[in-house]
Amino acid sequence: MGPASKKNKKKKPSFRKLLKTSNLKLENKQKNRQFKQQSSAKKQRKEQRKLRQAITDVSHKTLKPLERYKKKLVGEEEEDEEEFLESLPVDMIDEDDLEQIRAMAKKASFLTRDISSCAPAHAKKRKSEQPLKKYEKMPRKMQQEEEKELIHLLPIKDKSGLIPQSMEKPVVPEAEEEEEPIDQDEFSKEEEPESVPLLTPQEQLELRAQTLTEKKLRMASLSSAVLADPHVNIKKLKELRAMLMETDPCVAVTVRKLVMVSLLEVFKDIVPSYRIRPLTEEEKAAKVKKDTLQLREFEEGLVSQYKFYLEDLEQTVKDWKQKKQKRSQAVSLQSYKGLAEVAIRCICDLLVALPHFNFHNNIVVMVVPLMRDPDRKVSEMCCAAVSRLLKQDKLGQASLAVVKVISGMVKSRNYNVKPEVLNCLLCLRIKEVEMKKDTEDTAPKKKFMSYKEKRTNLSRMQRKWKKAEEKLQKELLEAEASENKDKKIKLHTETLNIVFLIYFRILKKAQKSILLPSVLEGLAKFAHLINLEFFDDLLAVLYGLITSGDLTYRESLHCILTSFHILSGQGDVLHIDPLKFYNHLYKTLLTLHAGGRNEDTAIVLQCLDIMLTKRRKQVTLQRAQGFLKRLSTLSLHLLPDSSVGILAANRTLMHAFPKCDILLDNEMQGSGVYLAELDVPEYCNPQNTALWELHLLKRHFHPMVRKFAAHLMKGAPSEGSGALSMELSRRTPVQLFEDYSVKDMTFNPPVAGPSSKKKEHFTIGDAFLDSELKTLIDAALQNESEQTSLDFTSQHTEPETAVTVN
């Protein structure tokens, strides 16, 4: 019995188990409670909706009065009775029944009762009904028409008796009769002030200056009050913004411009460095301190006034675009252009100065369409603002918003936009993006242990220590700001995907568009960030564009530069030999512009650097020698700045390929003759020629060209007598080309001025060709030295005495 009783004996559940409830039951209870609340709320809303509908029906319904029946005359009653008796089958009805029918006809029934009344004809009061209250017994007020005055006339006598006669009293317009003389008097009185002589132009200018000064002082006082204490005087922003509605036509344009600029500076000063979000219902209902309440009021007022200010600016631009004349015609259509330009300038400043604040996306949507405006000043202003925003944006949120709007605009306009719009994308600060990696790298790594793993693998004390350790690691990650870095890379990746989408659309659908140079330049800049999957197709498209012959020289250079940017990054893995691009550049080098428009030289120098210097291991010696010879020939007919850049590129090429110094000798190696007209550098026999162009460049008028030519003739040494200075040797060919640019039509370095023609000293000696003249001059100089003094009196007296003697 012992073991059996132990088996049958039930264990009492512990208090903790009794308290425990399964999660499923708790969820079911919560769902049932929520369902009941929702159903009751639905019923309540339904009843309230019915009640509101009934109230609206009653309020809109016009009450109709009950029908009133006039007492019929004695003759009419007799006629009705006769008609009623004729309609009845009197032969088949007894006299008693006939009398009963007549009595019922005289009583009110559903036939004679007014249908508009709602109560039943024979309603009986129930015992359970409550007695009516006083306000229910009172009659309702009907919509009564105005009682018109009647004039009683003489009655008319008829067989039935006297019939009263009346007519409506005619309403005499007394006011109109009296107004006529009054209006004339008033009109004569109103004309009197208008007959005052007009102001002279000088007085009008003085009055305008005085009014403008008052408005300026008002603006200054309001702005200074807001800046002094924004939290207290935030309401004065509304007064300042109200001045945008200035209606005085003399000063309206000037005042509105000044108010726009004043509000711009005020907002730039008082706007906080964070984004203001709207408060939730719980936050509004919660009790807060006085300082917190004041801060909330300030933020709410600031956001609302900022929003109204942006709406005013946008409306000003729209009025100018649609050529509308609004606001009491205080501003003429001719003045709206200047007003709109000030508004656009304010919008652009807000775009750059407050990228973190509210409504920034709205500002982007306003500015980006103006980048393609026909007005050159407006488009340049907006493009410059967008470029500044992209340059200073470090997080990437503003850049992403701008790129999205530009992508939508380019697509909606069917690629009919200005190239400056896409040139702004070159200002993007994108250096690192998320690249596609292997599945092992992309698999999410478990940073922390799950709850089940902790329960199974760790003890209680170990779990406690693990929890503290994970908390510490999270704090360290927050301190390192690694999350911000990941977020920034994600934003940059999304931005670059949209940029490449714009570029690839234009390459595919609008190859003859004016946007192609901007697209190629953008691809050349961001080519190292393109995914490997697109490399083959992109190179095929670029080579097709080059061979098509539809591109300009600058566009073909951009195609070559883009191709080598692609191959210099991740493209090293593909092992592609771009021989066709080398041949095309070698073929078109001699077509480089030799005049003032030599901006293409910088792109040529970049192509040479990335094609020959950075890929020196993939370039043959014959190809390098061919380019060196052709570049030396090219430098003869270019401007000085381009010649300096080309000679600097030759110097870099000789350092990268030391065996190119054989071109400095007159001896020929191997068989064959140099073929300068051949377009393939490997097969033109460059080793059988010499760089004779350096002897001509050594006598060039530009001192830097002479210096580089002499340096190359000595083999471009890094040290010694023929070496360049440290400053020149460290500069790249592109930098040297920009330093000695003749873009501004100035000679760099400046030419020394001519020496002065005035001689500082004279040479005394055998400088006279005539010998007799020389002897006379010497005798005169000798006599002058011997004579000590002059006596002018003796000379005058001697001839007088001689005359008297005679």
From TrEMBL:
Compositional bias ranges of the Basic residues kind: 1-19, 42-52
One Pfam family it belongs to: CBF
Coiled-coil regions listed: 451-487
Keyword Nucleus: yes
rRNA-binding listed as a keyword: no
Residue stretches of biased makeup (Acidic residues): 174-194
Annotated GO biological process: DNA replication initiation; muscle organ development; regulation of lipid metabolic process
Primary residence: nucleus
SUPFAM superfamilies: ARM repeat
InterPro entries reported in the protein's UniProt record: ARM-type_fold, CCAAT-binding_factor, Noc3_N, Nucleolar_cplx-assoc_3
Domain CCAAT-binding factor: 556-709
Subcellular location: Nucleus, Nucleolus
Molecular function via GO: chromatin binding
Entry keywords, A to Z: Coiled coil, Nucleus
GO cellular component: nucleolus
Biased composition regions of type Polar residues, renumbered to the chain: 787-796
Region annotation (Disordered) ranges: 1-54, 168-198, 787-806
Family according to the record: Belongs to the CBF/MAK21 family.
Name of the protein described by the UniProt record: Nucleolar complex protein 3 homolog
Organism annotation: Carassius auratus (Goldfish)
